[in-house]
Amino acid sequence: MTGKMKSRWADDEEDAAADAARKREKEEKRRAKAEKQRIADEAALKAQQAAAAVADAQSEENQTELSNRPSKRRKLSPEREEGGEKASGGGEVKLLRFPVGGWKRCRSVEEYEKLNDIEEGAYGWVSRARDSATGQVVALKRLKMDNANDGIPVTGLREIQTLMDCEHPNIVALREVVVGEDTRKIENIFLVLDFLEHDLKTLLEEMPEPFLTSEIKTLLQQLVSGVLYLHNTWILHRDLKTSNLLLNNRGVLKIADFGMARYFGDPPPKMTQLVVTLWYRAPELLLGTERYGTAVDMWSVGCIFGELLTKEPLLQGKNEVDELSKIFELCGIPTEESWPGFRRLPNARSLRLPKNPVSQGSVLRAKFPFLTASGSELLISLLSLNPAKRPSAKEVLEHGFFREDPKPKSREMFPTFPSKAGQEKRRRRGTPNAPVRGKVGEIGAVDFSGIFAGREEEERGGGFSLKLI
Amino acid sequence: MAHLTNPLATPSQLYALTTLNSPLPIDLQHSIRFYTARLTQAAGLLLRLPQDITAQANVLLYRYWLVDPLLAWEFSDVSAATLYLTAKISASPRTLRSITNVYTYLLSLPTFPSPTTPAPTAPPDPESYYLSETAYTTYRNRLLNIEGQILNALSFTTHVSLPHPLAITYLQTLSIFSLPPAVSTRVAKRTIAHLNTALLSPQMLYLTHQPPALATAAIYLAAREEGVKLPDGEWWTVFDVEREELGFLCVGMRSLEGFVEEERRRWEGRGVLTREGVRGEMGKLGLNNEVGNGVEEDEESQMARLLDEKVGAVST
């Protein structure tokens, strides 16, 4: 009883014995460690000597047998010592390391709980869903399996590949790819993407008034930073348009829909000109070039800029020819000086253009009278007919337009809008879809000389015209 | 970033390989990987595909076999499906008809073409590798199914960064090309040869090491073999490679010669390696042949069971 009632801290013989045992143990450990160290040292010394001997023997061999052997080989051992010294001295070499991914079997789509449908794009259906495990709301995009004879469509594979390689705040993130429950045949493939409340196209349609200039600057800046990242990563988006730009309620814009995207190189490889939705398609694509580059995306950026200003798509052509004539109407007629070599493009040979072209930019300036000088300078440069004259994404970001008043609105101050995608089914939109791969529309002999016919009679000026009697 | 890095195999994936492919002995696993990768290489040549596509296809092939068992599908089918898939997303796609034609041809050869076997004197009879329209359709559907399986197993990670272009940049950085052209060309060729051979490595070097390390090791070996002096000091750290990793890779790359010799002794003179051939070999080794077939049977019986369950669920 007494033993039990005694204080826990009392020092009795039991404790003393335990203490002694512990001390002994510790000492033994220390001794063992020292012994080990000594053995290791000895071994290391031996190994070093052996290595030196081998190296010497080798170098001798080299000298006798292969006289052309470089002297470099003999330097290995001293180098190692140098390295050792460095390491012990703390002067370690810093090596660059990147985070590394892996691969494992896809998860099942059953891990997500479908909330509602959002829209149908050219490359699949999108619905809003919730991750059953984390409760996060995401967008599930189902890949269309069009041509079963070719297997999984190349557009979908490219979209997955390019999106997986992208990590940027202004590009929609691909979290994972999931497949249907039945994996004996892989037919149902879903991309799990960030969910954003709006797409810019629907938003512009619903808004009573266009965005403020400060808001346009914020949107444009985010769009162009995303495009800059893509181009720096050697990716061409090739389908930039307002319906592919998503916006959340915190004022963040993200580029989506990479169904047309692909890697490019320098010099650019031969690529199809059947890219980019017609209203946002650059003139060199319409004229049938096979070698193009980042400038096609910059043209689309220009079209989006114009659309943000007026809420209306800038160049709503009915077909390739009509689109081209609308472009020439707005941006002027290309000449051999303004666009050297454009005549040699496949579809340009048959063009008949008016003899006395109006200067580029004047029509554009008249169309956007409220834009500042630097703003219209940026827009006009983005809509240069000659792709070489369009500014790069980097140049746009550095443009004075973003530095002058009104300054870009901070994202926190950005207005919010009622979310359509949240609950309601969206309307199908009027934008034509990106071209389907395969057939290339031929622009035959077309007469464009009529575009500016009658310009002289029309005269400049708004409400009245001067006529000399 | 993605242009310099690859996803890598996890230690647990590598560790699980033995159970994944049991009871297939390790050396047979190595043979399957080696010969199937060589089959891809041969098909790539016949399809006139750029080497980077073929190389990427072989990396995807090895990645796939880290998730699914080697005996899940016929080896040549997995090779054809990876090659088709890789070419499809590249700038030089090939039609399924061309791919099935080339593989039918390669499978019809009595001996697998190799640099050491003498080329046959007479060209093979075209009848022997003719692929009829119906046979093509079944072949195509089989490949498309495997394509889906491969993508599913890889979680659609089709991106492969190759060390080859990096190696050229590194050689430039090391001023190899300022040497006499004869010397520098030899070093560059040797470097690329090492990188291509490493694709066949049983150690699956492309799944365990990043492109900069592979490129550096290939340059180290090539320069040594060609007797070219590289800078003093630890130049490999400039390319973010540790001495330890460099040493490991050099040993790995050098060991391939012996490995290939071994494989050649074992399989020389035979046609394309098939599942049947592997099962025969297992029988010869006294390994339980039924177990080898058991993998297949297991899968089939499992499928049947799943089907029964589904039917049962529907009818109740």
From TrEMBL, chain A:
Protein keywords: ATP-binding, Kinase, Nucleotide-binding, Serine/threonine-protein kinase, Transferase
UniProt xrefs under PROSITE patterns: PROTEIN_KINASE_DOM, PROTEIN_KINASE_ST
Top-level taxon in the UniProt lineage: Eukaryota
Chain ranges of the Protein kinase domain: 112-402
CDD domains found in the cross-reference section: STKc_CDC2L1 (cd07843)
Compositional bias segments (type: Basic and acidic residues): 20-44, 76-85
Principal EC category: transferase
Family: Belongs to the protein kinase superfamily. CMGC Ser/Thr protein kinase family. CDC2/CDKX subfamily.
Annotated signal sequence range: none
Compositional bias annotation for Low complexity: 45-57
Protein name: cyclin-dependent kinase
One function term, GO molecular function aspect: ATP binding
GO biological process: regulation of mitotic cell cycle
Enzyme Commission number(s) from the entry: 2.7.11.22
Keyword Nucleotide-binding annotated: yes
Region (Disordered): 1-90, 405-439
Origin species: Hyaloscypha variabilis (strain UAMH 11265 / GT02V1 / F) (Meliniomyces variabilis)
ATP-binding recorded as keyword: yes
Record InterPro entries: CDK (IPR050108), CDK11/PITSLRE_STKc (IPR045267), Kinase-like_dom_sf (IPR011009), Prot_kinase_dom (IPR000719), Ser/Thr_kinase_AS (IPR008271)
Catalytic activity as recorded in UniProt: L-threonyl-[protein] + ATP = O-phospho-L-threonyl-[protein] + ADP + H(+); L-seryl-[protein] + ATP = O-phospho-L-seryl-[protein] + ADP + H(+)
One cellular component (GO) term of this entry: nucleus
Automatic annotation (TrEMBL), chain B:
GO process terms (BP): regulation of transcription by RNA polymerase II
GO molecular function, one term: cyclin-dependent protein serine/threonine kinase regulator activity
InterPro entries in UniProt: Cyclin-like_sf, Cyclin/Ssn8
Recorded superkingdom: Eukaryota
PANTHER family, per the entry: CYCLIN
Protein name, per record: Cyclin domain-containing protein
Annotated organism of origin: Hyaloscypha variabilis (strain UAMH 11265 / GT02V1 / F) (Meliniomyces variabilis)
